[in-house]
Specification:
4 strands; 13 helices; two-stranded antiparallel sheet; ABC transporter involved in vitamin B12 uptake, BtuC; mainly alpha; 338 residues
Length: 338
């Protein structure tokens, strides 16, 4: 994998440190209230979901329509672990809850990766249409499964049903700005390094021409499954973070419409652009919240805005371009010569 050792990357790291410091100071001085901080956290979580989906759809050329299913899987796994296994509550000190939360995040990513592998291995041998149909079905299966999974929990002498059609509530607030930003940056670095590795180049070759890639000796199924599992892993991690910021989950959150939202972020930002996915995720999350006061009418304006942007920019906001610090130095030099 390419090492992040050039000036552009150093400036990017310095920029992240400055942004983190500014946001933290503004929040501590109550210039940024808790609501705004919550929106910023949701922006980063949505960016993780958009970038991981772009790895599958944009860089590998697949067509997954069930990303929310992996997200909700990770969310439920992490939520069950923190609330039912470790029994973390609002009264648990954060320094004690954090190691448990990290374990829950890792478990969420692992389970989502396993589910992605079990779905992808048989299906990715077929054409993309089959993948789209199967991932839509997967989202519905996940919704039904979590709709029926419930537990009886003894809470101070009285028994309460947890899960099922009621959803999972009482999840502790463990996702904060610092933790989510660390996971967000790690996601960008890992997926960026994967894309510019030989594995990522194999995925891009499959996207460009699957037949030619096969003739060059690339194991098509292997790299499709690899990209699908990696994308599913980060979707599960994002689901764990999301569950512990909104503090509740419902089976409908893994449905088709939620997956479409993430698809919109990918297509609007640009298929095959990490930078575009981040920009689109941040922008659409902010716009959605900004239009919330007008109620259901916001969805009409939201749709009109998307139509205008896609008509003016059919390749997305960034196309396949990246911010310089995300592109290895040798790659930039090759593009400069051409």
């Amino acid at each position: 994998m390419k090492k992040l050792t050039n000036k552009a990357v150093l400036f990017a790291i310095l920029g992240l440190v400055v942004v983190y410091g500014i946001v933290t100071i503004l929040h501590q001085n109550h210039i940024l209230n808790d609501y705004i901080m919550r929106i910023i956290i949701l922006m980063m979580i949505n960016a993780i979901l958009a970038v991981s989906l772009n790895l599958i759809n944009g860089f590998t050329g697949l067509f997954s329509v069930g990303h929310a299913g992996f997200m909700i899987t990770g969310g439920y796994v992490a939520g069950f672990i923190t609330t039912l296994v470790f029994k973390v509550t609002a009264e648990t000190p954060y320094y004690q809850a954090l190691p448990m939360f990290v374990i829950a995040i890792l478990a969420a990513g692992a389970v989502s990766a396993l589910v992605g592998f079990l779905i992808g291995l048989p299906v990715l041998r077929l054409s993309d249409d089959y993948l789209a149909i199967v991932t839509i079905g997967f989202g519905e299966i996940i919704r039904v499964i979590f709709n029926f999974i419930s537990f009886k929990v003894d809470k101070g002498g009285w028994v309460q049903d947890v899960g099922g059609p009621r959803g999972l509530s009482g999840i502790p607030l463990l996702s904060n700005f610092t933790l989510v930003m660390i996971v967000f940056v790690l996601t960008i670095i890992i997926i960026r390094n994967f894309i510019y590795s030989r594995h990522g180049r194999a995925c891009i070759a499959i996207r460009e021409n699957e037949v030619a890639a096969h003739l060059m000796g690339i194991n098509i199924t292997k790299y499709k499954v690899m990209a699908f599992v990696l994308g599913s892993t980060f979707a599960g991690v994002a689901g764990a973070l999301l569950a512990h910021i909104i503090q509740m989950l419902h089976p409908t959150m893994g449905g088709f419409m939620k997956s479409v939202e993430y698809l919109i972020m990918v297509y609007l930002g640009g298929m095959g652009s990490i930078s575009g996915s981040v920009i689109a995720a941040f922008g659409l999350t902010a716009v959605s919240e900004f239009l919330r006061p007008i109620g259901e009418l916001r969805m009409v304006l939201y749709g009109v805005l998307l139509i205008i942007l896609m008509l003016k920019m059919p390749a997305g906001l960034m196309g396949r371009k990246e911010f310089p610090f995300l592109v290895p130095l040798k790659e930039r030099q090759i593009h400069a010569k051409n």
